Amino acid sequence: MKKWSIVLLSLMLIAVLAACGNNKKSDSGADNSAGAPRTVELKVGASPTPHAEILESIKPALEAQGIRLQVVTFNDYVQPNQQLEDGKLDANFFQHQPYLDVQNKERGFHLVAVTPVHVEPFGGYSKKIKSLDELKDGAKVAIPNDPSNGGRALLLLAKKGLITLKDDTNITSTKKDITANPKNLDIIELDAAMMPRQLDEADLVFINANYALEANLNPAKDALLIEDLQGNPYANILVSREDNKDADAIKKLAEALHSEEVKKFIKERYQGAVEPAF
């Protein structure tokens, strides 16, 4: 009788262990009994337009590759880099290389460009004049206060002969580099996000394309002066940290952003206001 009790207990123990093994889950919480792929969470910071919209368009393609993309939107140009540096984001998508270079230098970040995605032509807009010929002596001109985008505005003014710079190829030119200002333009520097609100105040306002689009402005149609797309050094880039730039999920994200589907999405949705850089 004792022998049969031992056998019965042994069989019960085997059954319990087998049940435990069948219920074992993968680290992602998914059932791994059939070799199901592990889902990777990827958190990417982006400006709402067009960056977040482009990222949203590739979510299904990444999901099919086991990557769950979470897009976190920002309305400024400071927090996306700070949070990426702090490890709160895995990547970001909102800036161009000159801006990133300044951020790394001034803030001691360790952020790297992964790949260029699109170009947003930077331009000057106005509600008060219809052409640059109408710009009066002492006119108020608003430009972004960060070195790279402020420099873009000054280079455009110089190209149109409205000011002269020490070096009209220096993309980080500042007001201190102005050597001639024949119209005595009153150039004010403000945060880039504030530019659309200056349209009611200033005579000429320089606005980054993402903020222009949010304000229902089309750079290709509404700007009084605009950058050339050919040879433009301001392609918007996917950015990660030095420690994760070679991660498989980041590589797949970069590949998805260079797909023909994304190229078609950009061309059809933005009608020349945004152009692919690949």
TrEMBL record:
<feature type="lipid moiety-binding region" description="S-diacylglycerol cysteine">
    <location>
        <position position="20"/>
    </location>
</feature>
<keyword id="KW-0564">Palmitate</keyword>
<keyword id="KW-0732">Signal</keyword>
<feature type="signal peptide">
    <location>
        <begin position="1"/>
        <end position="18"/>
    </location>
</feature>
<comment type="similarity">
    <text>Belongs to the nlpA lipoprotein family.</text>
</comment>
<keyword id="KW-0472">Membrane</keyword>
<dbReference type="InterPro" id="IPR004872">
    <property type="entry name" value="Lipoprotein_NlpA"/>
</dbReference>
<protein>
    <recommendedName>
        <fullName>Lipoprotein</fullName>
    </recommendedName>
</protein>
<dbReference type="GO" id="GO:0016020">
    <property type="term" value="C:membrane"/>
</dbReference>
<dbReference type="Pfam" id="PF03180">
    <property type="entry name" value="Lipoprotein_9"/>
</dbReference>
<keyword id="KW-0449">Lipoprotein</keyword>
